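Can anyone check this?
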Amino acid sequence: MRWLKTLLLIILCLVILFVGILFTIHNTDKVTIDLILVQLPQASLSLWLIAAFVCGGVLGVLLSSVAILGLKTRLRSARKRLTIAHHDLERQRALVTKDSA
């Protein structure tokens, strides 16, 4: 099953690469991007679009990482509280067992 997953991942990467190459070939017009305060140098439309796509992907991964880090911190805190509660419960059971004996 692992080899199938790897094969599908390789095929997906090849398809993305192929689409990227086709996209680059069909969008060769030179454009200048004006960001109001900054004017970016003239480059092909495909380059700017791919750069925007990559920047969006990287930004998405970074923001997701922050969210995941926060969730892992909350999970670690909850596990600590669970361990403490479990130890308290064991102590209470031991006391009840001693008292009843």
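Reply from J.R.: I decoded it. The two ends are 56 Å apart (CA to CA).
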